Model the fold of this input.
Amino acid sequence: MTVLLRQVRDMAEAAIVLQRRGLVDICRPLDAISASRGLRRYGSFGGLVGHVAARYGDAAALTDEDGTASFAELEALSNALARGLADRGIGAGSVIGLLLRNHRALLLALFATGKVGARVVLLNNGFAAPQLA
Done:
């Protein structure tokens, strides 16, 4: 199989998975193109939040001890955090260690680091030195 055919097959398989998960509607090709651009530019976390914010806007995205946040709020907050990271010189090639509880801050950090192109190491307070290395 040629490289081009393999790439087309891989893209079609990815589109089917995204369709099944409700992230894109392949019957609405402009949405799929928009999602693809965001995912290609910002990676899976950074691109995903922008796409779902555009699609679902003020719908509830999550609820935690701080209340309910919409998809649009998550997009705005992750953009602000991404700008803050970029202002501090964090970007492509940077590695960020995250040690956060399971609430919106973890998601916001993942979205923002994706937007600036930084890699993430998810930490656990039970890690020993060899695990962290």
User: Anything to note?
Assistant: The CA atoms of residues 78 and 112 lie 5 Å apart.
